[in-house]
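Case 206 in the screening queue. Each case pairs one protein sequence with one candidate compound; here the compound is S-adenosyl-L-homocysteine. For every case the pipeline is the same: read the inputs, emit a complex structure as tokens, and attach any notable structural observations.

Predict complex for case 206.
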Amino acid sequence: MPTWPPRWTEITDAAVLAAIARVPRHRFVPPEWQEHAYEDRPLPIGHGQTISQPFIVALMTQSLALKSESKVLEIGTGCGYQTAILAELAGEVYSVEVVPDLSRRAGETLAGLGYTNVHLRVGDGWDGWPQHAPYDGIIVTAAAAEWPPALLAQLAEDGRILIPIGPAGWDQFLWQGVKRGGEVHKRCLGPVRFVPLVSPDLETEP
Ligand code: SAH
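Case 206 output:
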């Protein structure tokens, strides 16, 4: 059994490390991948999607600087692992997923672990979730081609957004935005690799 969480020099927030230590990652991955759940790597979760690498989950969560009363929006629920980490640290977590089966399974896992502050919705995260805006934190776990205007609009004053931006498969960078005086100030945190944020409107069923 490897050291868990791994000793990441970049992750200094004790609350984030404690959340990673508490959440059982193996509960979120398919049975055939469970023996790899405590390795610092992404794993397949079905539907061509992946559970993010734990280091990236920790880095994005730390960069959100959440408080216990924060309201957070996540785009890309996936298996719900990042959702659980957010639920450990924030007040309420709203999460949007475009694949209904992933959202349903994430809901079952999160309910099975006893989380009551998580709210899931099936839909296109490009539009955010306006009904519960503004959000103190917004985290996007799939790479967008550009900054989604709806998400910037749904960010609270002093709120932070973490989002990978770039084309599918390559040349993606993780960005942090902070809203001050109604304007979002953007900072690049480094290269990353995420599955693409899909546009359901443009796609036809196979
Ligand atoms: N945080 C998740 C990451 C899953 S990968 C985890 O660790 O499990 C990214 C997720 O974004 C996938 O589940 C994918 O289906 C979802 N996604 C892609 N495009 C989307 C969109 N437009 N709206 C909402 N979710 C989307």
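Case 206 observations:
- The radius of gyration is 16 Å.
- Residues 45, 49-52, 75-76, 78-79, 81-82, 96-99, 102, 124-126, 141-142, 195, 197-198 surround S-adenosyl-L-homocysteine (CB under 6 Å).
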